[in-house]
Amino acid sequence: MKPIQVGLLGIGTVGRGTFEVLQRNQEEIRRRAGRAIQIAMVADLDTARAQQVVGDAAQVVADARQVIANPEIDIVIELIGGYGIARQLVMEAIEAGKHVVTANKALLAVHGTEIFEAARRRGVMVAFEAAVAGGIPIIKALREGLTANRIQWIAGIINGTTNFILSEMRDKGLPFDTVLKEAQALGYAETDPTFDIEGVDAAHKATIMSAIAFGIPVQFDKAHVEGITKLEAQDIRYAEQLGYRIKLLGIAKRVASGVELRVHPCLVPAKRLIANVEGAMNAVMVQADAVGTTLYYGKGAGSEPTASAVIADLVDITRLHTADPLNRVPHLAFQPDELSDVAVLPMAQVVTSYYLRLRVADQAGVLAKVTGILAESDISIDAVLQREAGEGENQTDLIILTHDCVESRMDAALASMQSLPTVLGPITRIRKEELN
User: Which of 81, 210, 383, 401 has its CA 20 to 30 A from that of 100?
Assistant: First the structure.
């Protein structure tokens, strides 16, 4: 049987890895897919670099639209990234009747509804395993492996850059800015790391997972997004003393009133497996009614780990290439006409527990005033830690862990505490997730 023909748009780090792994393991992949898979065309503005990678194995062009226009190409891999030209090319490839494989989480999180609807109309597949958690097959697990389950929540370390930074801050006691420079020097963080450290990258991925888990449209604009730039080394130390680790989590949770979709730093009990995921590794916990808790762990980025996911999508499409579109697994796991319009909740309605750090005057009655405000707000206290003031110091840190309460109530209590004359600086709030 003739090999299925693939066009690759963009041969940077992941594109090169995809080409090389496909070449190296072509016989194994053919045996799994039932048909050979061949990258026949590569489009990249740097044609000299692309030619150096592929040699005589594929035609190299500068214009991606030449790949899309080629009637011999069955599948287009989009590895350009971003919302702009990548969106245009994906839509054009779908309109041309090509299946699409992409690692572009930003594109799918923002324009996924439009893209999946276009693919449904044309009867083609859009596969995106590499868009979330690199080489970890979390999309396939959610779409297929857990299809018998009612998924209750997902909590994931889905950005390796921020996890590396938090691990280094904890291990070495260094401030955020110092560790960020280290991460950039080692290649874990981009020159402009904003998407990573402000939580946007993780929110893109959490948005995609929430859609698959709960059968809702992709709704990135409704996600609550906080990064790690305001975290201080002292908060990581205090969390350790209380038996917690701080991780940036992407959380999607089904509750009675809707769906929570949020990314922010969290205190996680140190005894949880996910709390012990260090460095640039990724991990995703899924809680479901039938199977219970499952954990998926591995490399969330890199040339060959991401290529592994891209090629897995190629194999899936190759197997289903001639199948009736109605018998394929839907893009978002649920049939398109069965998607739910359940609301994504604003952060003010989310219920969780909290870590609070207050810089306060070292004098009698301060703790009573603070706890009084919490009591008036009907917020119960789980634990209190007060650092003993050093000799000659007239201020100290007061650490409070709370039980669950609705975020709006905590907002009001924080405003009251902040107005106390004995509270000497901005109050630090970090949400706490027990992940039971």
Answer: 210
- Cα–Cα separations (whole angstroms), residue 160 to 19, 183, 202, 279, 340: 24, 10, 9, 7, 31
pLDDT class for 346, splitting at 50, 70, 90? very high
* Residue spans per domain, the chain: 4-135+303-338, 138-299, 350-432
CATH of 138-299, one of 3.55.40.10, 1.20.1250.20, 3.30.360.10, 3.40.1010.10: 3.30.360.10
CA–CA separation, 306 vs 292, rounded Å?
28
Fold topology of 350-432: Alpha-Beta Plaits (3.30.70)
In sequence order, which ranges of 302-429 are alpha helices (DSSP H)?
A: 303-320, 366-376, 407-418
Residues with Cβ within 8 Å of residue 244, at least 6 apart in sequence: 267, 268, 269, 270, 275, 355, 432
What would the pLDDT profile of 119-172 be if each residue is shown by its tens digit?
Answer: 999 999 999 999 999 999 999 999 999 999 999 999 999 999 999 999 999 999
**What are the tens digits of pLDDT across the range 252-287?**
999 999 999 999 999 999 999 999 999 999 999 999
Q: Which residue has the tokens 């009747």?
A: 97
**What digits encode the pLDDT tens for the residues 421-431?**
999 999 999 99
CATH of segment(s) 4-135+303-338: 3.40.50.720
Which residues are catalytically annotated? 205
